[in-house]
Amino acid sequence: MKHFIAIVAASSAAFAQDSTEFKGSIERLDPALDALIAPGAKIEKLAEGFNWSEGPTWYEDAVVFSDVPENIAYRWKEGMKSAEVFLKPSGMTTPVSGFREQGSNGLSRDAQGRLLVCMHGDRRIARWEKGVFTTIADRFEGKRFNSPNDMAVRKNGDIYFTDPPYGLDKGEASPLKELPFNGVFRVNTKGEVALVTKDVNWPNGIGFSPDEKILYVAVSDGKAPRVMAYDVQPDGSVTNERVFFDALTARKDGDKGSCDGMKVDALGNVWATGPGGVLVISPAGKLLGRILTGQATGNCCWGGPDGSTLYITADMFLVRVKTLTKGAGWQ
What we know:
Layout: E1 2-4, E2 25-28, E3 44-48, E4 53-58, E5 63-67, E6 72-76, E7 84-87, E8 104-109, E9 115-119, E10 124-129, E11 132-137, E12 139-140, E13 143-144, E14 150-153, E15 159-162, E16 184-187, E17 193-197, E18 203-208, E19 214-219, E20 226-232, E21 238-246, E22 262-264, E23 270-274, E24 277-281, E25 287-292, E26 299-303, E27 309-314, E28 317-322
Antiparallel strand pairs: 1-11, 2-25, 3-28, 4-5, 5-6, 6-7, 8-9, 9-10, 10-11, 12-13, 14-15, 15-16, 16-17, 18-19, 19-20, 20-21, 22-23, 23-24, 24-25, 26-27, 27-28
């Protein structure tokens, strides 16, 4: 199933870089953070004015990210004074009612460099190429997904993705909901869909350790926000479910946000959005520090010429931090 989608190449949102004050800082909780983020590093605001920015990925020398409620994906490249509309619509190609957030959410790339999209409104994982969306997966055992939220792609081409009901109006109580659970799924290069787990009710961000032996899943449970870890088996299934990091231990009075998106660096550190901004967690599950955005923070991605710059979608803002590490998979 394909839909034609126009790229709005020159239509940019008028987001003046200095029109809204952005206050961010880096909280250093362990000396090990200095090897990942240089002392004195600053958070740089790139664009603003979005409803809820999410799901960034590095694509064709630019960062592409979603404004989920607005059904738009934006693009920002070095030298731009504002972000430009890249895909509109981005997640709902045929208007239907019953959605709270209908746009794209998590974005990624496949081995060929093509853009992959979690589409809330169309309730599918799709590949975008040459002006069309092509469905990769939209059902499990004949039932529509809830609203695919975020994804991680393995070296063998398998796509792992989370499927909470956040895009649906009324969430769990939505009459559109067909699956009786909120799962984590895997779709292989043949389009075959398998259930990875349905044991966490609010799965959100997702990522792999550099050797792909551990799968991480963020759980945006308001009462128990956490990052789970699983051992990945040769057949792609997972075992040994465990709590990797309890985000309640990082929450302080006034912090905004919960566990949402994540990325993993080449050293195995997990950079997970959570209370206050982005939590930097060692492979052993120790909190090394936080990138404090002052906003509920949706997700992050590695990018730049060498994959060492962390781009962060923080509510109405797109910001970045230059690091001393780089994303897993970057050479």
